[in-house]
Amino acid sequence: MNILRLLNESEYIQVNNQFIKPDHPLVSEEYADDDDVAIDARLDGGELILTVAELEEATPLADGGFWLEGVGYLRFLSRAGLH
Fold first, then answer.
1. CA–CA dist 17, 40 (Å, integer)
2. In the predicted model, what is the mean pLDDT of the chain?
3. Which of 3, 11, 18, 78 has the most crowded Cβ, counting Cβ within 10 A?
4. Domain locations in the chain?
């Protein structure tokens, strides 16, 4: 599945052992440029900013998550998936 579609359908993002609720607009799956910001969120007192190109470099994992060098484990979740 397209990582941008997962992002657009998610309500939460797991980044390593933390959950964030990103305040993001939808990212066009067809018209996104590589340098468009896909994720902009506060994490551990800092800011996590990822572009479309960075997300598309993520390696899919068997459990539905992704591995992204320099960030770690990412997983896109809906509210129903947290119960």
1. 18
2. 86
3. 3
4. 3-82
